[in-house]
Amino acid sequence: MYAKCGLFPVSERVFDKMRQRSIVSWSAMIGACLQCGFHEQGLLLFTRMLDQGIKPNRASILNATACVRRENAAHQMHRVIMDNVLDNDQSVQNATMLMFARCGRIDLARSLFDGFTNKDLVCWASMIDAYARADLPLEALLLFNQMRLQCVLPDSITLLAVIQACSILASLHLARTLHAVIIRCFLECQLVLDTAVLDLYMKCGSLTYARKVFDNMKGRNIISWSTMISGYGMHGHGKEALHLFDQMKALIKPDHVTFVSILSACSHAGLINEGWECFDSMVRDFGVTPTSEHYACMVDLLGRAGQLNQALEFIEKMPVRPEAGVWGALLGACRIHSNVELAEIAAKSLLNLDAENPGRYVLLSNIYASLGKRREAYRIRNLMKSRDVKKKVGWTSIEIKGKMYTFVAGDRANPEMDLIYSELGKLMEGIRQEGYIPDVSFVLHDVEGETKEMMLYAHSEKLAIVFGLIKLGHESSIRITKNLRVCGDCHTATKFISKVTGKEIVVRDSQRFHHFMNGTCSCGDYW
C-alpha cells in the first residue's frame, strides 16, 4: 500500500519491523521494489527469502523475474523455477521467456516459447513484443502471421506490439495491411489503437494517411493530439504543428508530453522565437513544470541557431539536474558547428550518465575525426571497447512492391549486387561532377584515401538508394529507413543524388525524417 502511494521507505520500515514474515509479505515487498524501480534490491530480497528456507510461490517468482536485468541472474532464476517445479505454470513460463528477452537472450526466449505445449494469447503477444523490443521486426511479423494461421485472435496488446514492429521497418504497405486487420477486428481500446496507427503512418513517412486517421477518429485524447503534433515535427513541418497546437489549446489543456512534441517540432523546423514562446507559456499559461526533456528541446533549439555558449549557460542555470538527453542535445549541436571544446564538456557528463549508449561515443569520435583529431577519435573508440559498449550494426531498408530489402555497409548478399555497385559507381561519378567531395573523416580505418572513399561509397544508405533507383526508376520519390543516425557523408551525397536524379528521397533515421529535393534537405543540415 505504501509503495503504491510512492512511500517506499515507509513500506520498507514496516517490512523490517515484522516479527514473522510469510511468503505473502515477502512477495509484496519484492513487488514494491519492482514497482519503484529498485530491481537489484528486489532480487536481494528474493535471495534473502530463499536463504531463510522459504519456498517461493507463483507471485514471488513473477515479481522476482520482472526484477532481473542481467543474464547471469536470469539463469540463476531459471534454476530456482525448475528446482521448485514452477515451470509448468503458464504465467511463470511467460515471465521466464520475457526475462531472457529483456536480458538480451532473445534466442533463449524463443527456445522456451517453442517448447511450450500450450501457448495462450499472452504468450504469443509477449514473444512478438520481445522481438519488436529487440529490434527484430521481421521476426515479430513472421510470428504474428504464425499466430493468425493457428487461428489465435489478436487483442489490442498484441496489435500494439505488431504496430511497433511495423514502425521499425517503416513499411507503408505493411502499415496499410495491418490497419485493415485492425479495422476488421471488433476491439476494445479503439482510441489507443487509432493513436498507434496514426503514429505508425507518421513513422512510415505518410503524413497524408496519418492525418486521415486523425481526422476520422471518433474521439481524441491528449495523446492523439500530441502524437499528431509530434509527427509534423518529425517531418520538419513546424508551422503545421503550431497550427494544430493552437487548435488543441482551444479544446483540451496540453500536458508535459504535448510540450515536448511542440518544442521538438519548433527545434526541427528552426522556429527559434516560436519555441521560446511555447517554453515560456508552459508555466505561465498552463502550470506545466519543465522537465529535463523540455530543457533538452531548448538546448537543441539554441544549438540549431548556433548559440552554443548560450545553450551551455542555459544548462548551467537549469533548476533540475541535467540528464543525458540535455547533454546529448548539446553534443549534437557541437557536431554540427564543429565546437570540440564544448563537445568535450558535454561528453564528460554524458559518458558518465549514459555510459551504455554506443551512439554517444560514436558521435564524439566523429566530431574529433571531422576536425582531423584522429588520435582523440581512436581514444574514444578504445574507451568504448574497454567498457564493452558495442556499436549497433547499421542497416538501411527499402520497400519495393510490398517487399522489404535490407542492406548493411559493404553488402554482397543481394543477388543483384554487381548491378548495384556498377550503378553506384556511375552515380558517384555523376555527383562528383556536381561538386560532391567524399568526407573521409567518417572512416577511421588506417587505410589509403582511395580505399576510404570506396568504404564510404558502400555505406548502406547509398546501396539502398541505388537499389531504389534501379527498381523504382519510374517513380518520383524513394523512401528508405536507417536504424541509426544517417552519417554526414551520406547526408551530403543524398543531397547531390536528389539534384542529379530529380527524385525526392525521403530518409527516416533514428532522429527524424529527411526530405531531400533538388539538392537540399528539409532538416537544414541540422540533425
TrEMBL record:
Protein keywords: Repeat
Domain DYW: residue ranges: 435-527
PROSITE patterns in UniProt: PPR (PS51375), PROKAR_LIPOPROTEIN (PS51257)
GO molecular function: RNA binding; zinc ion binding
Record's keyword annotation contains Repeat: yes
Pfam families reported in the protein's UniProt record: DYW_deaminase, E_motif, PPR, PPR_2
GO biological process per UniProt: RNA modification
Ranges of the PPR repeats in the UniProt entry: 22-56, 120-154, 221-251, 255-290
Keyword Repeat recorded: yes
PANTHER family from the UniProt entry: PENTATRICOPEPTIDE REPEAT-CONTAINING PROTEIN (PTHR47926)
Family named by the database record: Belongs to the PPR family. PCMP-H subfamily.
Stated name of the protein: DYW domain-containing protein
Source species of the chain: Gossypium trilobum
